[in-house]
């Protein structure tokens, strides 16, 4: 039915999965399958329907992921996304979404990945995100978010990737940001953070890439770091760190990039 423009099957008792063949409806503009008993993942073919402008899938038992990245979607992120209780991945980066991040995301308790980077989002980071205990990746960078990183992030003990760079964030980075000890990538550069490197970072041996450059952070660099056997890249430049060159850098044998320029480091370079 390649000429079909509107398909509305909402508010029935339809069960089973959404067929992959629905992507063949090349002229479809509106799709409403809400308020049914549909199960399984959302077929990837839906996101290839170039004429589709309205999609309603709420109040079903759908699982899986929602990928909407690399588009020109605009407007606020719908608070109703919080109704997709079985959603595990929400990727809407590199669009034109604006407004605040809705606290209704707390309802996505099965969420493992939330990526809203490179939009025009503003306002504070909702502390409710700290209740998504299965989250392993959180991408918030290149937006206009302000305020601080919520202290509730200490509850994200499975978090491996955290990106908050290129925002307007300030205050202290929570000292227990790496409580789970699994943080691999942590990027917080180009903000207005103050204070020292979080204490929990000393024991974050999983670290591979760390960027805290271009902030207003301070502290004794020779006391605030640990040993990182997997560390490949670290940039602490353009801050107010002081103290002598960290004596244990030589034990980070996978290190390829070490950047600490434009600070107040003193003393000699260890052999």
Automatic annotation (TrEMBL):
Tree of life domain: Eukaryota
Name of the protein this chain belongs to: Probable LRR receptor-like serine/threonine-protein kinase At4g08850
Gene that this polypeptide is encoded by: LOC103328831
Biological source species: Prunus mume
A Pfam cross-reference name: LRR_1
